[in-house]
Every structure is written in C-alpha cells, then in structure tokens.
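Example 3.2
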Amino acid sequence: MSDTLFAIARSGMDVERLRMEVIAQNLANASSARGAGVEGYQPVRLVSGPNTVSGFEQALGDAARGYTVHAPGALAGARSYGVQATAAPPRIVHEPANPLADADGNVAYPGVDHAGEMALMVQTQRVYEANVVMYNSARSMFMRAMDIGGNSP
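Structure, written as tokens:
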C-alpha cells in the first residue's frame, strides 16, 4: 500500500514536470518569427490522464467486460500519453522592417497565448506541490508506523 502511494505521487510529479517542459518550450518559441511560406512552430499541449490499466490482461479483461474496474490495486497514478499540437492560428504582426515580413509587411509568430501559458504554469506548479505534499505525508505516516512498531513489545 505504501509503495502504491509513493508510486502515485511520483507519477503525478513526473507528468507535471513534463507539462512544465512543454509550457517552457511554448514560451521559448513564442517569439520565433517565420518567413512567408515556411512552416513555423506550432504550440503543443501534453496529453495526460489516469493510469489505471496495469497490463495487457487487465485491458483485455476490461474490454471483454465492457467496463473498467477501479479496484485499489488497479490505481497506478497519472500517465502522459504524448504531446499534441494545438490548432492555434499564427499571430500576425505588422512589422515592415522585419526581414521575414511578407509583401504586406506582416510577420507570422506562433499562436502562443502568454496569459494562458502562465495560468497553466501556475496550475501545474500547484498540482506538483500537491503531489509533493502527498508524498511527504505518506512518508511521515510510514515513518510514524515504523516508530510505533519499534516501540511495541
């Protein structure tokens, strides 16, 4: 049971660390202009969710039953499924002096929403901190149980 708590907290921290890397990548590429007719940077999002399926047999059994069993043994924390490009349109800025400007003097920048990225960064930080609190609480309970067990006759 204690291993499960630590594994759940660790998987949550891993997912949030990956999410923070994706946010940093979006913010780092927000000012990378692209020339006319050139494929530029497209903002991405981390796709994550619960990790309830622990093996092929369980997934096959769930598919055969038509439902998923959420037994305590089936909980395995969070999991990242990959990175997916968003459908955000490019941000067009009128900069006639820019060498990457088109014939109208417009330059295309990636459609990164700075406020949205910052809000997601704060949310990611809070979730990461919640996982750290859970990890530390589980560790404290585990250590206290060890102390109680050591003092028993």
